[in-house]
Design a protein that fits this description.
This protein is mainly α and 104 residues long. Helices cover 62% and strands 10% of the residues.
Amino acid sequence: MQNYKEKLVSLLSENPVSRKCLSTKLGLSDRAVRNLITELRYQGIPICSSSQADGYWLARNKREIEQTAREYRSRAIKQLKIADRMLSFPIDGQVEMKDICQSK
């Protein structure tokens, strides 16, 4: 696995690279590439991504890291709001469409 991590980091040293391209070059599934990126980020490797750019790249400066972190925080907040909303839906049995439409 270490060899894949090293190769992945070397692929990200230039321009943004799509996950599809990374999968092809590494010979791994999309999920395996996502897991590698997550592992490397946990190890402190500043792999950035953005909704404005196609792909992943190694951060060149603190601004890029901060932008990626802002996007992650924004997504996390949205997911927490969805989780809270789901937990607030009263279910006493099977949910029916009329229940869903009336809960709005």
